[in-house]
Amino acid sequence: MAKVKPFRGVRPPRQLVEQVASRPYDVLNSEEARAEAEGNPRSLYHIIKPEIDFAPGQDEHAPEVYEKAVANFKTFLNNGWLVQDDKEHYYIYAQTMDGRTQYGIVVAANVDDYMNGVIKKHELTRRDKEEDRMKHVRVQNANIEPVFFAFPDNRELEDIIRTVSAGEPEYDFVAPDGFGHTFWVIDDDAINARITEAFAKIPYLYIADGHHRTAAAALVGNEKARLNPNHRGDEEYNYFLAVAFPASHLKIIDYNRLVRDLNGLSPAEFLEKLDYKFIVKDMGTVTYAPECLHNFSLYLEGRWYSLTAREGTYDDNDPIGVLDVTISSDLILRDILGITDLRSDKRIDFVGGIRGLDELKRRVDSGEMAMALALFPVSMKQLMDIADTGNIMPPKTTWFEPKLRSGLVIHKLD
Fold first, then answer.
1. 184, 165 Cβ separation under 8 angstroms
2. Partners of 147 in beta bridges
């Protein structure tokens, strides 16, 4: 069962939150972060992407960059740009995009739950990326950015979310990208106790987004436990920062593919090969989006095509085989185009659906790419089924939007 606790969050004063809050470290590069933080010394990018305080081209993994992150965090605390709450709280965090709002509970999640599989994952992690994030947690002795969890819908927690969110929020603003962020501090001890008890009845939490951050946070906590001869198990380092959403609140959007060449085939030959495994329909020049599971959208030479996988080419009883990313990877990218490693092959690129199908069209029309393939989004049920069966999703399967805003609350490990 899931073990969570409230914590003394480190947060910006209400009047500074829009200056401090930022996008997550991994959704933009150093130059984009430098541009967004320009003229704003309070931007969290000075902590999570501290290379922006050096000359362009600075190695972001250099020791002096990590040292700068620590110095900047201390500056934020000393200047009162970040202030630690004087008691432990849970928090409610709502995000609004395109008129739809999802509500999450900000918790301190348990390290042992990750190590023991109570917190379930659906993606592989890379050790080099884990180690980079572990360095940040170690040097700061804090989880600066939250990870993104889902949990099976729970009536008690929904009731709490509804009650708390009816009150006055601590923060309420629209970020430059147009997404709304609203944040409540739960000051009622009885409600905080109910949250702890309700999570204790939930068998599993699921990593929705942020596998590397989750692994890094848990591994640092586990490391601190091993190195402490007086370890008890209730120290703050046994927990890490997470925002947990009811699964029904979340919507996974499409994660699409672009390929640079047709592996020596002409467009006509490529379409002919597709016809063996797919029902191919020419949809003309009007943008076509996939309509259902096992239906794909192909953009090639200025035209859109509907591709529907033929019966017998997939297994709906296999949690991995049922995925459209598996079908397209096996039957199109591997068998026809010769792309076998989605992680490293330079012939393929990936575009989150937040950028729209017009981005696919633009990159093919420019001549940069030969074809684009749009996929029907994965469902939360599929994600949870895969995690429950101990399987791992293929690379570049899920895209969650909106991303969690960093800097609304930080968790210190002491």
1. yes
2. 242
The position carrying tokens 């994030």 is 133
Task: Report which of 116, 389, 129, 403 is spatially closest to residue 243, judged by C-alpha positions.
Answer: 403
Domain regions of the chain by residue span: 4-251, 255-376
Nearest to 378 by CA among 302, 311, 327, 337: 327
Which one, of 322, 345, 321, lies nearest residue 333 by Cα?
Answer: 345
Residue-wise DSSP of 42-70: T-THHHHSGGGGS-TT--TTSHHHHHHHH
Q: Do residues 90 and 195 lie in contact, with contact meaning Cβ atoms separated by under 8 Å?
A: yes
> How many of the other CB atoms lie within 10 Å of CB of 170?
18
- Say how far apart CA 120 and CA 115 lie, in whole Å: 10
User: How far is Cα 363 from Cα 371, in angstroms, rounded to an integer?
Assistant: 9
Q: Which two tokens stand for residue 53?
A: 């305080």
pTM: 0.89
358 falls in which pLDDT band (50, 70, 90)? very high
The separation between CA 49 and the C-alpha centre of its own chain, rounded to angstroms, equals: 17
Q: Which CATH number fits domain 255-376: 1.10.10, 3.30.1760, 3.40.1620, 3.90.470?
A: 3.30.1760
Tell me the helices (H) and strands (E) count for the chain, helix number first: 13, 21
Of residues 64, 11, 76, 65, the one with CA closest to residue 33: 65
Task: Note the pLDDT tens digit of each residue in 80-131.
Answer: 999 999 999 999 999 999 999 999 999 999 999 999 999 999 887 778 888 8
Q: Pick the closest to residue 60 from 127, 143, 129 (CA basis).
A: 129
